[in-house]
TrEMBL record:
<protein>
    <submittedName>
        <fullName>Uncharacterized protein</fullName>
    </submittedName>
</protein>
<dbReference type="Pfam" id="PF20674">
    <property type="entry name" value="SpaA_3"/>
</dbReference>
<feature type="domain" description="SpaA-like prealbumin fold">
    <location>
        <begin position="576"/>
        <end position="680"/>
    </location>
</feature>
<feature type="domain" description="SpaA-like prealbumin fold">
    <location>
        <begin position="460"/>
        <end position="571"/>
    </location>
</feature>
<dbReference type="InterPro" id="IPR045474">
    <property type="entry name" value="GEVED"/>
</dbReference>
<dbReference type="InterPro" id="IPR055371">
    <property type="entry name" value="SpaA_PFL_dom_4"/>
</dbReference>
<dbReference type="InterPro" id="IPR048834">
    <property type="entry name" value="SpaA_pre-album"/>
</dbReference>
<dbReference type="Pfam" id="PF20009">
    <property type="entry name" value="GEVED"/>
</dbReference>
<feature type="domain" description="GEVED">
    <location>
        <begin position="365"/>
        <end position="441"/>
    </location>
</feature>
<dbReference type="InterPro" id="IPR001434">
    <property type="entry name" value="OmcB-like_DUF11"/>
</dbReference>
<dbReference type="InterPro" id="IPR047589">
    <property type="entry name" value="DUF11_rpt"/>
</dbReference>
<dbReference type="Pfam" id="PF24514">
    <property type="entry name" value="SpaA_4"/>
</dbReference>
<feature type="domain" description="DUF11">
    <location>
        <begin position="686"/>
        <end position="793"/>
    </location>
</feature>
<dbReference type="Pfam" id="PF01345">
    <property type="entry name" value="DUF11"/>
</dbReference>
Amino acid sequence: MRSQQNTVPRQRLGEHAHAIVFAAGQDGATISSIGRLRIGPGPRFAPRALAWLSALLVLGGALPVSASEQNDAVDTALNRVSYASLLTVTAVSSGGTPGTTSTNVGAAAFDGNPPTAYDPRINLGSNTFNFMTPSPSGSTVNVVGGGQEAAGSLTFNFSRPVVNPRFHFARLGGTGGSAGNSTTFLTATGGATWTVIGGALSTTLGNTRLRASSTAPSVTCTDPASTSGCGTAQLNGSFTSVALNIGLGNPTTFTGTITADGYGVTITVDEDFSDAPTSYGMAGHVNSGLTLGASLSIDPTLPLTIPNGTAYIATPPATSPRASTNAAGDTDNAFASLPIVGVGSYSLSVPVAGFQTVAGATPQLCGWIDFNRNGSFETGERACAGVTGNGNVALNWTIPTGATYVAGESYARLRLGYTTSQVQSATGLADSGEVEDYPITLLPRVRLTKALVPTSDPGLFNLSVVPPSATAVQTNTGAVANVGHGGTTDWVPMPFGTLITVSETAGTGTSLSNYTSSIACTDRSGATVPLGAAGTTRTFFSLISAPVGPPTTPNTANANLSEISCTATNARLPTLQVVKVTQNGVGTFSFGGSNGIANHDITTVTAGTGVAGPVQVLTAASTATTVTEAPLPAGYLLGGISCSGLGAGGNATVDLPNRSVSLDAAATASGSAIVCTFTNIAQVADLAITKTNTPLAGDNDQANDTLVRGAITQYTLRVTNNGPVSVTGAVVRDTPGAGLNCPSGNLVSCSSVPAGACPGAPSPILMSDLTAGVPLGTLSVGTVATLTFSCTVL
């Protein structure tokens, strides 16, 4: 923490130097002298108002040197000073007997000296509050040694609570009157106490009253330090308003009259600074008692490289004086360290203490995580929450993906205060609260996604990414079961520099043998990540955070390795199934082919009804493939081949003479379910039969042919096979018509050209056999079988 100091336009004090004593007006407040103050000659000050703090917390004992903020010049219209953090202090004086302490109209220069009398070292030439404690009754009243005459009160009203403000005095005490010297007594009220930090100041009444320590204080700070009422005193506690009872005191050991005392007052307040690397900008908070964690550790005094060679802040510094390469320049009390960032969301339950209800305040807690590691805190990296009291306050972030997330060592900032507009900015000064910066680790992440070819494929798969981080705030098991196309493990946070395994297994009802499977990984830029192992299990090493140890500005050279996207692709192998259809008959037929088509038989059982063979998984997709039917059984011919389910743009080329069909590479694309139908036709012979009783006139009976009743006539039946196939067992049947008497015992003769077509049985052939039907032998193509028999005309 550091301090802020107020300043006022320079004016010189008059010749009468007078010491004024303050008394704190809130419970437990005390003032400690920190440095020397000298009272020099100068005019008395016109009445002015001044405001201060109310006590919340009392801190005693030796106090550390702190970083501080010094007040600016006095606004004489309002008796108010401001700070770079926009904290304000208004001074209000009230009457007393015999006179009233007043501020100098137009304010005046502080005129403190030497610099070592003040802690922190302030701008000794700045314009600031100047007060005049009037002499009692025009210096006609005798005051006993060590005694005082009341001179009213001064109240300092702070716009926000402050803790342990330090008052820096110049020219406290002076000469004049019969006593020879005087000094202002400042008495803290409500039990508050002072602690003298440096200079010629001292306390009495249990450290509640502050005064110049010398019994003969000098009138300027240029006099010997031992007698100059110049120095620093701390008022112990937490305040929003402080009332100090003012008295003009007699510092000597004998009774006498005393004259008015004029002196300058500058107030500094402790400052807490951010300590992340300088690229993140400066954030500073006035110590108001509102803390992250149970307490606030104030920062050491600023180095003397601050502008003007002083240790105060007149304007906000461009960079934090506590900035460090690892955010270790300040003590953090909210957390020992921050949890590692995983995936999805990130939450912190931030402890808040020292809360007060402050008029006009809008308490707020905000946090930033540099997710993209660009060395600055951005609005999109912020999470805020209102604060209504002490206890834990939740901050929640949605962890980004894509280019706004860069894995590695980064930084986070927490800001707490009573003024929302200040706390919601990652940089700048705030009039209250605390800031804490932390290193934070952002883990790389890996995702495995399922891709199926075709996307409509119903296959289910189990995906795995191991080992997931066990330390991230929110992690991911890295395993999902029974997912189809588009299924994913989602992002899985991974430890740095670890061998990562991405793999898949078949889910319910799925066989990997039906697919060609592969896994490929790319980084965020789309560059291929080299993989080890093979098939459905692949390995690679996760990002190795570089450089080792937290850098001043986070390293983003390996940003694209923050997210590794892996895809497990399963392309369903094409299948082929043969369907056999036979016409005019049934039978068993054989098939084979290339690209993994096994030899197999298909038997038809019903003419015209197709029978499907087994589904064959092709060895490779997008590969030319041929299906061939074995030579056909006798009497069959291949009527046609047709294929369906081809891949987009695929073609099937039919070769009927060779009983085959050729599928091109497009036809056998992944996921193709090809069905090829072979239609075989059982051939039917064209048999012709004629009958005549005038064979010499031709095979057919003559028109208007007449027979004499009672005559015996001979009939000739001719059966001719016109092809295209031989026929065995064709049945010839002839039933005599009316007007003919064909005794059943009459013989029927048979001959054929070529021979062999006549029935082997019965033998001989009788008319009764012909009437019932006689099966012929084999009628080859072109064979003619002739049967003759005789009948009587009735």
